[in-house]
Amino acid sequence: MKANIQQQKVDTTIVRTHALLHMAKSIHSVRGASSQGIGYLAPSIDLSAVRHKLDQLESQYYVMRKGDLNSQGYVTNQDSLVKTDEKKHHNDLLSPATNKYIWHYNEAIALPFMPNKLAIIGAGINAIEIATIYQALGAAVDIFITGDDVFPELDKDINKTFQRYVKRLFKIKPQAEITAFNFSDDHVQLSVTSKGKALPDADYDAVFIASDDEDSQDDLLIQPFIATSFPTVTWLGWTEKQLASSALNYKVINIPWRSLGRANTDVNTNGLTKLIFNTDNHVLIGGGMIGNNADEIFGEVCLAIHNNFTADNIAHTVHAHPTLHESILLAAEVYLGTATDVLNKE
Q: Please, which domain of life does this record's source organism belong to (predicted)?
């Protein structure tokens, strides 16, 4: 029974997060209309009203799921950007229970207050989704990551596409290490190094400490990766990173969304669909996409991988025009050398 209650809490937390992400997407859609000659006034954010609506959604979902015995565990870990000495020295100060300016996941989605500047320490889905929410609501967001990639489990091209996409939304500091936290009555000052060089000390109204994802890359073979950010990032199956150390023969097909009519009309041309085929049997073994509404078309990739579909199976499936789904069709046709909408390299 205890596990069931815990699972219900996890589910209602997800409902709250995705409601906030939907709000963020709506705000971005309104802002994006200006590039098409349609202007709107800046949104007015009533945090109290937003919190009330989120509480209602959580309550409704909790009642709906009451008695559900399904359970799924989520593993979290201490963030690794903070130096070991800093962790020990500021153990209590880095706890949300004793410091209102330090947030973990539950504190962040509770919307305790609206920071003008928010620091996010850590990479992964939680970090990027919280960044997406608060940037849309009006915060300036800096993200500090240990390596060069915001999604370490995914390939370099996916990460580069994402970081190019969001460079106007967030400031991402790679190869970062937090060397000191200095607290005052109304802000947190961080001392940080990035790529081995000290950055100027910066003040933040709040600091979100993301959990490290402990899932191994092998989980991508069976468990879909979905970051409902702006843009959305999805993946399932083998990555090039994994295949580099495997004996499988494979071919990677990338379809930039700028080749899609739907993406051009939606001003959504920075997206990318990537499929990986086993060249011995032409079966799809990995795939995903990055871009606005990528999650809406990701199901086809999951279905194809789960059922061992070949490039020919995909190419002979009807794909409506004009849609983002066509990127999956085009990728299969490029692999087969039969594409007519884009250049076949072979």
A: Bacteria
187: in domain? yes
**Closest Cα partner for 256 from 272, 236, 278?**
272
The tokens for 153 are 């489990």
Please state, in angstroms and rounded to a whole number, the distance separating the CA atoms of residues 82 and 177: 6
The pLDDT mean for the chain works out to 84
Kind and range of the H or E element at 2?
Answer: helix 2-32
281: domain CATH number is 3.30.390.30
Q: Are 167 and 144 in contact (CB under 8 A)?
A: no
345 within a domain of the structure (yes/no): no
What distance in Å separates the CA atoms of residue 203 and residue 177, rounded to the nearest whole number? Answer: 16
pLDDT of 61-118, one tens digit each? Answer: 766 655 453 444 433 333 456 553 444 444 556 777 678 899 999 999 999 999 999 9
CA distance 225 to 151: 10
Mean pLDDT computed over 315-330: 92
The tokens describing 203, both together, are 């003040």
- pLDDT by residue (tens digit) across 280-294? 999 999 999 999 889
Q: Nearest Cα to 272, choosing from 245, 244, 252, 251?
A: 252
70-74: long-range contacts, CB 8 A cutoff, minimum separation 24: 70/7, 71/3, 71/4, 71/6, 71/7, 72/7, 72/10, 74/10
DSSP conformation letters of 59-82: HHHHHHHTT------------SSB
Count of CA atoms in the C-beta half-sphere (13 A) of 238: 21
User: CB of 207 within 8 A of CB of 90?
Assistant: no
What token pair was written down for 248?
């499988």
Question: Across 35-44, 162-171, 216-225, which has the greatest mean pLDDT?
Answer: 162-171
Domain residues for the domain of 316 are 217-336
**Would residue 78 count as lying in a domain?**
no
Please tell me the pTM assigned to this model: 0.83
CB 81 within 8 A of CB 178: yes
